[in-house]
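Dear H.,

Thanks for agreeing to be a second pair of eyes. The structure we're designing against is below in token form, covering all 693 positions.
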């Protein structure tokens, strides 16, 4: 269960801890020499969190059958378990506690069988979850600011955690390190996966942490200081655990699950990247993620100098959902989407306590991974090709903003990355600063330089304001008067901008800024006011209708900078109203009149571009996720599309175009800088390869 229980599926950076200045962020350090390896495309993350109350653990395990099932499922790598969240070890340990129901060396037999089958096999250890240690060492427990134990309470009751969290700033870290050292020396593991590492947002108020903060001059009553200290501890302990693993397995992979998430402060994230040989992006359609998380995470984390793999699950809902299996179409979609994001694939599973892999589950995994294997030649070493950079938001309501902008651009089929302030802006033709991104002088200077070199900006609502929110620090072409003072703010698109949009005044579900255009600024849309603001004297069901236009601007253009006065991206995440997406699309048509990729199809058609040496690959996906239940997004059916037109901007006529992996040639025309082709049938996922571009 790698899931970090305190993460929201819409979480992004919670806010800079070390300071927001651009200079504070550094390029990620390269992995230590000798730690580069080829990240596999067909990986399994196998959990085995098994209560000590369960008997006959591993009774049905047969090593040859285990490896044979994986091989038949086209798996070439699997993370297996040394110690689980319950604190139970699955090998003969002298340091930890062997599961009382286990009679065999389960870890050793799995490693030997998989290596004989040519399957790579890193080993898993739970870090800040160890229920056995939690029960027996009260002084190792993480405490919240009120002195209550931190942890997952679930159905066992609200008072005592059924899965408590342990502080690695106590003697527990020595116990944890000794366990890792024990199995790394005893077995030829191909790497280590440290799971669930990281404090909750409130840090820790155990005696050890309180005392250390006192020595450091930090105030334990302040959440900011507790969080700052927690990051110090995380950084120190990660370095210790990774150094230990590399000293024993210098060519093995190292991954610490927890810090590399979209909730993390980017300064801290970039500092600890040296501890990673690669990145694994955990994101299931159920649990705390949904299908909105991975599109954001992949577009950010793939740019940090490490190979990255996505990680979904074989379950219907989330981790440990025994007796269920993911729909075949969903499993295909999730893995093929990883390939389309220039990532490798991982599927999570949970071994039954008796030790036998579920045959039906691996039949489905095998169908997906057989297809992935067929597609690998066009994915190995590929990188995403993008032209729009989205500066990701921080804190507050930014989570919905990041979801909204990612959904919009994906549905518009633009090629984009999510960025932090240290990114190289010069790589992108257009930058988007969505909704609430106020700018300190360092960031304002970086953006002015970007504009001076021909870059183009799209901003909305408070983006571009100074930190105090008093006025804009970029050449926006508008005067800022503050927040819109009324309950309703309507938008009317004007002139050519209106072409293709409904000829009506549109509601902004969330009000934004009150701005007036300066002389020379083009007003592309204006604000209408409502008849009145509702109160007990002025009643109106829903929002009050619009009454008359104002001299306030809703959308403006000043040179290479377009501005939208409402929080349009956050509003789209919360309402899904198509007008907002179409309006942003119109703005991008002005800023990017010749986009990298043009396709025709419904908004459910997804398209990305990757490249290898001498070729570019267009990935087309058509699956339709639905929220059929409150806690899980469902994909069950594949709905084919026919005669899908694809136009890729290329510097020259391609030598050939074909569908992959079928290697079926398709006609290609070249005109006005675009290579154009047609996909006869799109059934789920299709790659279109343009060679010699």
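And this is the sequence the design step returned. I haven't edited it by hand at all.
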């Amino acid at each position: 269960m790698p899931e970090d229980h305190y993460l929201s599926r819409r979480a992004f950076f919670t806010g800079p801890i070390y300071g927001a200045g651009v200079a504070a962020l550094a390029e990620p350090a390269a992995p230590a020499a000798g730690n580069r390896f080829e990240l596999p495309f067909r990986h399994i993350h196998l959990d085995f969190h098994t209560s000590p109350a369960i008997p006959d653990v591993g009774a049905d395990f047969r090593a040859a059958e285990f490896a044979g099932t994986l091989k038949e499922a086209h798996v070439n790598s699997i993370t297996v378990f040394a110690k689980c969240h319950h604190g139970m070890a699955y090998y003969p340990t002298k340091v930890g506690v062997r599961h009382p129901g286990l009679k065999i060396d389960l870890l050793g037999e799995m490693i030997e069988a998989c290596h004989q089958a040519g399957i790579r096999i890193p080993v898993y250890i739970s870090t800040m979850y160890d229920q056995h240690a939690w029960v027996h060492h009260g002084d190792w427990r993480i405490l919240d600011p009120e002195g209550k134990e931190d942890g997952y309470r679930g159905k066992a009751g609200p008072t005592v955690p059924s899965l408590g969290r342990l502080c690695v700033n106590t003697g527990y870290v020595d116990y944890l390190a000794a366990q890792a050292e024990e199995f790394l020396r005893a077995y030829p593991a191909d790497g280590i996966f440290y799971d669930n590492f990281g404090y909750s947002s409130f840090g820790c108020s155990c005696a050890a942490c309180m005392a250390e903060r006192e020595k450091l001059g930090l105030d334990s009553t302040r959440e900011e200081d507790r969080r700052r200290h927690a990051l110090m501890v995380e950084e120190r302990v990660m370095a210790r655990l990774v150094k230990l693993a590399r000293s024993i397995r210098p060519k093995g992979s190292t991954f610490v699950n927890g810090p590399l998430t979209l909730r993390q402060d980017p300064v801290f994230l970039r500092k600890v990247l040296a501890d990673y040989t690669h990145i694994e992006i955990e994101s299931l359609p159920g649990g705390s993620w949904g299908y909105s998380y991975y599109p954001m995470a992949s577009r950010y984390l793939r740019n940090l100098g490490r190979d990255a793999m996505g990680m979904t699950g074989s379950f219907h809902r989330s981790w440990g959902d025994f007796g269920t299996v993911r729909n075949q179409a969903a499993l295909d979609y999730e893995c093929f989407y990883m390939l389309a994001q220039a990532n490798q694939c991982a599927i999570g599973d949970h071994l039954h306590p008796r030790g036998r892999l579920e045959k039906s589950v691996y039949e489905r995994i095998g169908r997906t991974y057989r297809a992935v294997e067929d597609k690998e030649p066009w994915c190995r070493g590929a990188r995403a090709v993008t032209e729009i950079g989205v500066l990701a938001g921080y804190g507050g309501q930014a989570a919905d903003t990041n979801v909204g902008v990612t959904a919009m651009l994906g549905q518009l089929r633009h090629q984009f990355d999510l960025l932090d302030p240290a990114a190289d802006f010069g790589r992108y033709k257009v930058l988007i600063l969505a909704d609430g991104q106020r700018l300190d002088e360092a960031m304002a200077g970086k953006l002015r330089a970007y504009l001076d070199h021909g870059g183009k900006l799209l901003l909305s609502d408070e983006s571009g304001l100074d930190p105090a929110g008093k006025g804009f620090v970029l050449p926006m072409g508008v005067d800022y008067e503050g927040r819109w003072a009324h309950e309703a703010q309507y938008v009317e698109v004007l002139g050519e901008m209106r072409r293709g949009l409904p000829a009506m005044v549109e509601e902004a579900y969330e009000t934004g800024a009150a701005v007036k255009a300066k002389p020379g600024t083009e007003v592309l849309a204006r604000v209408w006011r409502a008849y009145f603001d509702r109160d007990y004297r002025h009643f109106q069901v829903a929002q009050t209708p619009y009454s008359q236009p104002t001299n306030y601007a809703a959308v403006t253009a000043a040179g290479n900078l377009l501005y939208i006065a409402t929080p349009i991206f956050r509003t789209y995440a919360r309402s899904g109203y198509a007008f907002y997406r179409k309006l942003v699309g119109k703005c991008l048509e002005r800023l990017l009149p010749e986009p990298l990729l043009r396709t025709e199809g419904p908004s459910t058609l997804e398209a990305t571009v990757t490249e290898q040496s001498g070729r570019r690959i267009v990935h087309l996906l058509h699956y339709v996720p639905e929220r059929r239940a409150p806690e899980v997004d469902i994909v069950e059916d594949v709905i084919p599309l026919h005669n899908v037109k694809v136009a890729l901007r290329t510097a020259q006529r391609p030598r050939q175009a074909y569908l992959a992996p079928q290697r079926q040639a398709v006609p290609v025309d070249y005109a006005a800088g675009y290579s154009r082709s047609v996909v006869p049938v799109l059934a789920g996922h299709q790659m279109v390869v343009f060679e010699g571009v």
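Two observations from my side: Confidence is low (pLDDT under 50) at residues 1-24, 31-35. The first helix runs from residue 63 to 72.

Warmly,
E.
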